[in-house]
Design brief:
Elements: H1 6-23, H2 25-38, E1 43-47, H3 51-67, E2 70-74, H4 76-81, E3 96-101, H5 108-119, E4 124-128, E5 141-144, H6 157-176, H7 182-219, E6 223-227, H8 231-246, E7 250-254, E8 271-276, H9 281-294, E9 300-305, E10 316-318, H10 327-330, H11 332-345, H12 358-361
Parallel strand pairs: 1-2, 1-3, 3-4, 4-5, 6-7, 6-8, 8-9, 9-10
Length: 368
């Protein structure tokens, strides 16, 4: 008999997954670091469908910041057909790198991207659960994720593993290249070592919040997510998780973009999550925009650190670390939990896809 709480069990296992990845980080990052030491990488392309696309958004921003490369996140169909590699011809093949985060590695788009890149002499890296799979066979560097295949159809553990691995790759390469000094590297590793506990607390906070606000989640006809910086990638993934599990419309918006038409649909009972994560000017701006929309809907929720002043009864708070880029991992966890709990109370299974035949009938995957 299938356990309908399998997805929740996977989410609860994520802190231990992170601990193992951080502990064994050389295994997961060595090939990436070696590549950056032996190649003058200046341009990084990241591409994936579904959950991997949001990994691309977060990892791309981190690599630009730490490695000083130009990085972009593209959906495979866009990259393959409309936005070719090296369009201006300024980079040599060895100066470019394609990164394809993946789960099974059977999705046709990234496989085509990898083939196009290799045909142009551009090295390709993937993270995957299938080191001998279709995507991996097209890659120069294959990083096998340690989380195993998931019985629940929304990816949770595997997604977090891809994020943590690629963030660690960026940090370790930056250190090897002399772009991080010893103190900066130590601060990064301190954050990675504290991240598992933060994710565990965030899961517990989400369960407690849901117990008090389940009526809001169950009555919603749609869910909106608003945030900034690397957490925008996290909100894209949060949106996808809620949509996959509840089968209700979900939309993710960058903070300022939400003001330009997207927020006009907010009504008195609209559910809108505002994520207030990393420190800086955007943090206060997020609170300002939240306060404005809280006058329009009683179901505006600020997701933030417990340290944030002015706490309201419906805020979802935890002892988040709020560290650069690591916030994209810890702020995902509450929405993973909420997606499972809401779906289960709606009578929906998180083990069964809405349309399991879609990938084969529309030729979106290949055989392993």
């Amino acid at each position: 008999m299938r356990d309908e709480n399998t997805m929740l069990r996977y989410i609860e296992a994520e802190p231990d997954d992170i601990r193992r990845i951080v502990r064994d980080r050389e295994r997961y990052t060595a090939a990436f670091v070696k590549h950056f030491l032996s190649h003058p990488v200046k341009r990084v392309y990241l591409s994936g469908n579904g959950s991997p696309h949001s990994v691309c958004v977060v990892a791309g921003m981190c690599m630009e910041r730490l490695l000083g490369v130009e990085a972009s996140s593209s959906l495979p169909a866009v990259l393959n057909r409309h936005a070719p590699f090296n369009a201006n011809g300024v980079y040599r093949p060895e100066e470019m790198l394609l990164i394809c985060p993946a789960q099974t590695g059977r999705t046709t788009g990234p496989i085509e991207s990898a083939r196009l890149a290799r045909a142009a002499g551009i090295p390709v890296l993937c993270t995957t659960l299938s080191p001998g799979g279709a995507l991996a066979r097209e890659c120069d560097i294959v990083i096998e994720k340690p989380t195993g295949f998931e019985e629940s159809f929304p990816e949770s553990r595997g997604h977090v593993a891809s994020m943590v691995i690629l963030l660690l790759c960026a940090v370790e390469a930056a250190r090897a290249l002399g772009r991080l000094d010893a103190d900066e590297y130590r601060r990064w590793m301190d954050g990675f070592e504290r991240l598992p506990e933060s994710c565990g607390r965030a899961a517990d906070a989400a369960k407690a919040w849901y117990a008090d606000h389940r009526g809001m989640m169950l009555a919603a006809d749609a869910y909106r997510f608003v945030g900034y910086g690397p957490c925008y990638g996290t909100l894209q993934e949060s949106c996808l998780k809620i949509l996959e599990t509840t089968r209700r419309p979900s939309m993710a918006y960058e903070l300022e973009e939400f003001l330009h038409g997207s927020g006009y649909g907010v009504k008195e009972d609209s559910v809108v999550f505002f994520v207030c994560a990393e420190d800086g000017p955007e943090r206060e701006r997020a609170r300002e925009i939240y306060r404005w929309f809280a006058k329009k809907s009683k179901n505006c929720v600020l997701v933030c650190s417990r340290r944030t002043p002015g706490r309201q009864p419906n805020w979802l708070v935890s002892d988040f670390l709020d560290l650069p880029f690591l916030s994209a991992v810890e702020y995902l966890v509450p929405f993973q939990v909420l997606s499972h709990l809401t779906a289960r109370e709606l009578g929906l299974s998180t083990l069964t896809q809405a349309y399991p035949e879609i990938f084969t009938e529309l030729h979106a995957i290949v055989e392993a």
